[in-house]
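yo

u said u wanted the structure for the complex thing, so here. seqs first:
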Amino acid sequence: MSVSQNPSGVDSIPNGAGAAALLAAGIGCAVLGILALAGDASDSINKFLNFYNPTGALSGVTDLAILAWLVSWFVLNRAWRNRTVAMVRVSMLSFALLAVGFLLTFPPFMDLVQGK
Amino acid sequence: MEISTRDLWTVLHGMGFGALFMLAFSGALAEIYRMAASDPRVQPSQRERSLLNFYLVAMVILAWFTVISGAYIVYPWYRAVPPAGATDLADYPRRLLLSSGKTSEWHNVGMEWKEHVAWIAPIAMTMVAYVVMKYGRSLTKPRHLRTAVLGFTLAAFVATGVAGAFGAFLNKYAPVRGGSVIILMEGEQ
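structre next:
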């Protein structure tokens, strides 16, 4: 992701903190979808994701997605909080990651990806 | 009038937290849009902004309560495994749905999607609340950030709608039942 200081000065408030929160949310959603798919596709991954037996693999999928979201938010925020970043790219990437989250949690699409 | 503990938790999860969270969306979308409008004549006052912040924080709390109560309290009852040879599956909703081709897709599509997609809502709304509180009225300036915030709010609404709708149907075809009984009121007869 290219990051640049705002040369025009049009936006006086750095958008970096907001961009970090936005992209991290997209990452969290995408990780949720990817892990849901992985748990569905592989028995060994499904067992690995079984952090809490009464809830099954859902516990690992959601715990790791939340962890990925919070860690990426922390890292991105540290890097971007005082900067103005290329918001169009961050926004497009975030929506793409959000779409990954929606699609990979949708069972018919999961089956399609796995060739079922 | 009595209710079982599992019924009570299911109602709290779906109606107490989930439905209240969903009802709050229209207000949140309208207020975020108004706050982000570039026309200074429609800018909210400091008091209105504080109210919006409180409103969004309440939504975030409701969203997390909804998914956590669903995944860690109600869902284990839903996916409970019946003892070998059990023929009455009323207390085992997942197995009850899977026992017939007429209902199995309520689990395979409905519950499998609901249990995952619902988590998009609290993640998205936490981000939305943070950005709105951090930028406040300045959200009019970073235009693409404002658009993204509105987009993620809509996505959270869709995710909640999917989870809520399937939750209602699942509770109709295979309700989570059982647990100790709480007597709310005694009738005359």
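Residues 16-41 of chain A form the longest helix (26 residues). The interface with chain B takes residues 10-13, 15, 17-19, 21-22, 24-25, 28-29, 32-33, 36, 40, 52, 54-56, 58-59, 61-62, 65-66, 69, 87-88, 90-91, 94-95, 98, 101-102, 105-108 of chain A (CB under 8 Å).
cya
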